[in-house]
Description:
It is built from 16 helices and eight strands. It is α+β, with helices and mostly antiparallel strands.
Amino acid sequence: xxxxxxxxxxxxxxxxxxxxxxxxxxxxxxxxxxxxxxxxxxxxxxxxxxxxxxxxxxxxxxxxxxxxxxxxxxxxxxxxxxxxxxxxxxxxxxxxxxxxxxxxxxxxxxxxxxxxxxxxxxxxxxxxxxxxxxxxxxxxxxxxxxxxxxxxxxxxxxxxxxxxxxxxxxxxxxxxxxxxxxxxxxxxxxxxxxxxxxxxxxxxxxxxxxxxxxxxxxxxxxxxxxxxxxxxxxxxxxxxxxxxxxxxxxxxxxxxxxxxxxxxxxxxxxxxxxxxxxxxxxxxxxxxxxxxxxxxxxxxxxxxxxxxxxxxxxxxxxxxxxxxxxxxxxxxxxxxxxxxxxxxxxxxxxxxxxxxxxxxxxxxxxxxxxxxxxxxxxxxxxxxxxxxxxxxxxxxxxx
Length: 399
């Protein structure tokens, strides 16, 4: 990180646009030129002006027409809403490269210990309208440095677009934490082949469990052996692929929930079953009493207690996704074309990474720490928006 950025963070003060821009990757202007985002622009060819206009649209949330008017009135740039849409369409590769640059910086600061804990999740983003395109955002959150370390945008339908651990680059020693959507044999095998490990919620419909001799593992009997709240247990099991002989050894780890949590889980099962006009099985209802995890982590290093404690950390990614949807307003994708929607998504992701970076450093250096924490996210973002639209200055030290 350059000296100007460190100076900004240490004073806790981002008084204007130039200071905000100093928080970007150092080579962002070179990336803008290399991705041809300025090519064909007749006037206002400076990358700084174009970025300012794009931030008005993407971060402040102004429409294309509003952005055009505000940019002209503020003396930032003079371009029509149609011209801005064309610039947005051409900016997809630029924002994608900027995201990659932010993630490289995050990885360089990460703790390269023997294991790296990564929480993964996904979300759908839909363009408005009956025939709006759906996109899927695949997101990985590193708990070692508390920030996004990988993300990928795909169409919501089609080959290779589904939710799965295959969407992420896996390094030896990575521990992938995920929900039931990632509990599939091919996903688990993919991570194992890369030298990583998994710890995911068990999906009874997608991943049958077997004994070493190939017989079905009696999970119901295993549940009944733990009749009281807080009781936990583990067993060695095998999971099978479609090819004969294709199998992996895992551990199934359980802890019995309290009555309130179990009742809430059963209500959800009944509600979902009613929508699908199905009757839940006895095993499904029995499983509501437990948190059931599947893991490939070695028992000699990760005890049952450590596995259960490790999975509790998964709530971190839920907070990260809430911040992403709040900060970037990523839940509603404007309906343009595939190219502009793609650019919009990458732009929103870059903003999220950038604001996470600024927030984390202000939390470390600034006297005004409350705004840099999750509780002050709204106020923090509003002040950044004020800097971009020249509504106010952003002086943390004075608050």
